[in-house]
Write a structure and sequence with these properties.
The structure is a homodimer of 258-residue chains.
Chain A: E1 3-9, H1 11-15, H2 17-29, E2 33-38, H3 42-50, E3 56-58, E4 61-63, H4 66-90, E5 95-98, E6 106-110, E7 122-127, H5 129-137, E8 141-144, E9 147-149, E10 155-157, H6 160-171, E11 176-182, E12 201-202, H7 204-212, H8 220-231, E13 237-241, E14 254-256
Parallel strand pairs in A: 1-2, 1-11, 2-8, 5-8, 11-13, 12-14
Antiparallel strand pairs in A: 3-4, 6-7, 9-10, 13-14
Helix pairs in contact in A: 3-4, 6-8
Binding site for substrate (chains A, B): 40-41, 62, 157
Organism (chains A, B): Thalassobellus suaedae
Family (chains A, B): Belongs to the acetylglutamate kinase family. ArgB subfamily.
């Protein structure tokens, strides 16, 4: 099986021109087949507020009403995605920007209304790995933004981490897949106050130990749960750290395997 | 040679939900290989004004400054393009939304500053017909918005009619191409005051006659000049009329050939 890297960057890299340019160079230099997934974050909030649309949050989570979905479609699918694609082309990476609607690549289901109505938010139902593979086989590099569709004409806002893991799971039917989650930390930390206390390798048994010791907590809990879910569904390895983990020189990041 | 239809719709169809839905059904039913090109028009002006960006016009032409380019990228590349793609998917057309930056499909050159500085406006330099053909061969239907790139990371605003004719010329290397320009009239009219005075067929000699008689004037002049330019560069036929020309039943539109 050939290898495929799925790299995710968050809003903090997107926001900052110098960070984005630096990252895109590393991504372009990454050997082999690859897919990029990006969030959009604050840019959408900023433009929404300029348009007089208030960000609605419930329990720290954004509610995507019709107006907010329009802004997300403009910012994630247009402004951010197309600028990333243009910058990658300048670095000789033959990028193609996608939402889940394009080539019907990611179908999702509008989240059912329970205590909270999240609005136009989609939970991933299906990844069209064969369609995505046609792009890869044509030597194009897919660049996904955090938008999916329901197959009936409705775009839906979907978490970029989830898109990353679901696309990786889907592509595991055809490739040996590795995920690279780029974030602000150097990796999963043993001591949250010591940024150099990176745990270099986590497997299932260490994961259980760390959970019991309470070392994995707060925001890291759902992230790692998501990781082991992906690993249990065919993803070979998951890497977490800052963008320099994409270089060969830096081995100070966390690799997670079963 | 296989046939390929390149269909262009303008802002007036995009603006109106019912017109757009009706058109997309016709487009979906169109047999054979096809490409859609769309403008964006008033939606961009509307959102720009909401964001406090004034539309700058010189001699009736929009000046694309950096802020305006951002809005165009959001509206054409995001909001309009991705909603069209999602709607086409619901009609079982496996659409893929593109700017000229995606798969490096349309490279352009920033228009040189002469009497007027048009800003971030690009004149088409090259169409990557082989790259676009990889999508067609994969059974995807390209949907282009009116944005190109310079290959150095800069997106550029480009007239949708020009994108249509240039893509058609490029694809003529591989296909027998026909353009369908959908607009508000039934076709090229003999008498501008009689909407049913459609000239059904224009060839080179009739074109010269019509020019001499002053029947082709104003806005139609550059449109037809553009058409004959495309025909002289490999496009087989060009059709102008309202969207119903895409059906078999209606033959009341203008077909232009050499």
């Amino acid at each position: 099986m050939e290898k495929l890297s799925i790299v995710k960057i968050g809003g903090n890299i997107i926001e900052d021109e110098a960070s984005l340019t630096g990252f895109l160079k590393l991504f372009s230099n990454l050997k082999g087949h690859k897919i990029l997934v990006h969030g959009g974050g604050k840019r959408a909030t900023h433009i929404a507020s300029k348009l007089g649309i208030a960000s609605k949050m419930v329990n720290g989570r954004r509610i995507t009403d019709a107006e907010t979905l329009e802004v997300i479609t403009m910012v994630y699918g247009g402004l951010v995605n197309k600028n990333v694609v243009a910058k990658l082309q300048a670095l000789n990476t033959n990028a193609i920007g996608l939402t889940g609607a394009d080539i019907n690549s990611i179908t999702s289901e509008k989240r059912p209304v329970k205590e909270v109505d999240f609005g136009f938010v989609g939970d991933v139902k299906q990844v069209a790995h064969n369609a995505i593979d046609k792009l890869i086989k044509a030597d194009f590099t897919p660049v996904f933004c955090a938008i999916t569709h329901d197959g009936n004409g409705q775009l839906l806002n979907t978490n970029a981490d989830t898109i990353t893991s679901q696309v990786a799971v889907g592509m595991s039917n055809l490739y040996e897949t590795s995920i690279y989650y780029c974030f602000e930390l150097n990796g999963v930390l043993k001591d949250i106050n010591d940024k150099n206390s990176v745990i270099k390798h986590i497997d299932t048994s260490l994961y259980k130990e760390l959970l019991e010791q309470g070392i994995i907590a707060d925001g890291m809990l759902p992230k790692l749960e998501n990781c082991f879910d992906a690993l249990n569904n065919g993803v070979k390895s998951i890497n977490m750290g800052n963008t320099s983990m994409l270089t060969q020189e830096n081995d100070n990041f966390t690799t997670i395997t079963l």
